[in-house]
């Protein structure tokens, strides 16, 4: 029997709903991040070069950017359970097709399709978590949904990497398809079929684009989060070329990053319930410090582990940004969800690109920490603009 109810869920049901929603984000994290360590295996299968195989990752990111706004807007007034079921169906089918790809061209196409529901699922799941959250708990509820992705970086990616190395990369993508099918069943059974907290229309959704505060907050993600991806992309090169430790230490570093993501997501989510804007500013200052520290810490593997852990903690800013945007824009939450996902994928492109440019100009891999610090400073500048605008807005509201 499905959870076909219209009344607010109980506290027990809230916990179950959050776990089920997090299962979906776990699958998305698995589907996205597991492709990176599997690239050599895919290249071997299709006889392609690493750069050619990398198109599969780019295709996924393009799918996210295109799919997020289209699917979020077309399902904006659909009950969240129904929308989530549609997105999980797409995740199941596209990952299954990816596992069956007979050529690199097919894989690239299927990875593009896999990316389409990524941002839409995240957006719908986080909005549902916001809808069912008790007063004053919205940010922490949203962070618990995001927790699935962070756990995927700790547990899921290392496991599927081992599976891919010992069996085949196809089993990894097939496993993601099976998990999506299981999540579909759980969503149908556990998630209540409640009406949306607030109806939406296209005018309200597109009206978000006129809000200058929305763009400055998104700028925190586009510029600042580029710093996270700048460091993350070149961790392996830093360890092999600068730290000069055994290759297995790369896996440990990735796990440390994942643990940092999970813990940071939880702690920052709790802090954001009191003040999302102040918590965001404090976290950005910390990331600037650790980005600079990354350069010198890379000469000692234990120091490097610690710094990577704290850089990972900054990923918890994701739900804070979402919460901030929902605060400053009472309408157009579907568009907000889409814009956040697009912003993160733009950051995912900017970070590795500028880091790669620095390396191409002769910088050592660990010196991407300097590049990341500059990006974090840019993100802090956007936060400062947002903070000033938000204070002015609150002062005007108090005088009216």
TrEMBL record:
The chain crosses the membrane at residues 12-35, 55-76, 83-102, 108-129, 141-162, 168-191, 212-235, 247-268, 280-297, 303-326, 338-364, 370-388. It is a multi-pass membrane protein. It comes from the Bacteria. Keywords: Cell membrane, Membrane, Transmembrane, Transmembrane helix. InterPro entries: MFS (IPR011701), MFS_dom (IPR020846), MFS_Efflux_Transporters (IPR050189), MFS_trans_sf (IPR036259). PROSITE patterns: MFS. Its main location: membrane. It is found in: Cell membrane. CDD domains: MFS_NepI_like (cd17324). Residues 17-390 form the Major facilitator superfamily (MFS) profile domain. PANTHER family: CHLORAMPHENICOL EFFLUX PUMP RV0191 (PTHR43124:SF3), PURINE EFFLUX PUMP PBUE (PTHR43124). This is Major facilitator superfamily (MFS) profile domain-containing protein. The lineage of its organism: Bacteria, Pseudomonadati, Pseudomonadota, Gammaproteobacteria, Alteromonadales.
């Amino acid at each position: 029997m499905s959870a076909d109810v219209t009344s607010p869920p109980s506290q027990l049901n809230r916990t179950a709903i959050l776990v089920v929603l997090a299962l979906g984000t776990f699958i998305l994290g698995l589907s996205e991040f597991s492709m990176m360590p599997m690239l050599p295996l895919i290249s071997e299968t299709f006889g392609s070069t690493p750069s050619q195989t990398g198109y599969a990752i780019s295709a996924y990111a393009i799918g996210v950017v295109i799919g997020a706004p289209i699917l979020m807007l077309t399902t904006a007034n659909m009950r969240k359970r129904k929308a989530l079921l549609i997105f999980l169906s797409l995740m199941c089918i596209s990952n299954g097709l990816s596992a069956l790809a007979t050529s690199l061209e097919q894989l690239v196409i299927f990875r593009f399709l896999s990316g389409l529901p990524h941002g839409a699922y995240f957006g719908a799941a986080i909005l549902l978590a916001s809808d069912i959250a008790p007063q004053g708990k919205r940010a922490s509820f949203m962070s618990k949904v995001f927790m699935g992705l962070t756990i995927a970086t700790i547990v899921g990616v290392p496991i599927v990497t081992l599976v891919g190395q010992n069996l085949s990369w196809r089993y990894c993508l097939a496993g993601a398809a099976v998990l999506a099918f299981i999540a579909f069943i759980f969503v149908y059974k556990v998630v209540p079929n409640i009406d949306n907290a607030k109806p939406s229309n296209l005018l309200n959704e597109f009206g978000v684009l006129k809000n200058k505060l929305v763009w400055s907050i998104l700028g925190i993600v586009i510029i600042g989060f580029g710093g996270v991806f700048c460091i993350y992309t070149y961790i392996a090169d830093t360890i092999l070329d600068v730290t000069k430790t055994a290759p297995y230490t790369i896996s440990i570093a990735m796990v440390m990053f994942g643990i940092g993501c999970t813990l940071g997501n939880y702690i920052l989510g709790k802090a954001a319930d009191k003040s999302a804007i102040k918590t965001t500013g404090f976290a950005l200052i910390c990331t600037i410090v650790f980005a600079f520290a990354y350069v010198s810490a890379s000469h000692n593997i234990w120091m490097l582990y610690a710094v990577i852990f704290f850089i990972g903690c900054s990923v918890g800013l994701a739900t804070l940004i979402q919460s901030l945007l929902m605060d400053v824009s009472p309408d157009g939450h579907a568009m907000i969800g889409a814009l956040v996902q697009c912003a993160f994928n733009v950051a995912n492109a900017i970070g590795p690109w500028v880091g790669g440019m620095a390396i191409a100009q002769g910088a050592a891999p660990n010196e991407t920490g300097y590049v990341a610090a500059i990006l974090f400073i840019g993100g802090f500048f956007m936060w400062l603009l947002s903070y000033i605008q938000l204070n002015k807005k609150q002062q005007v509201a108090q005088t009216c």
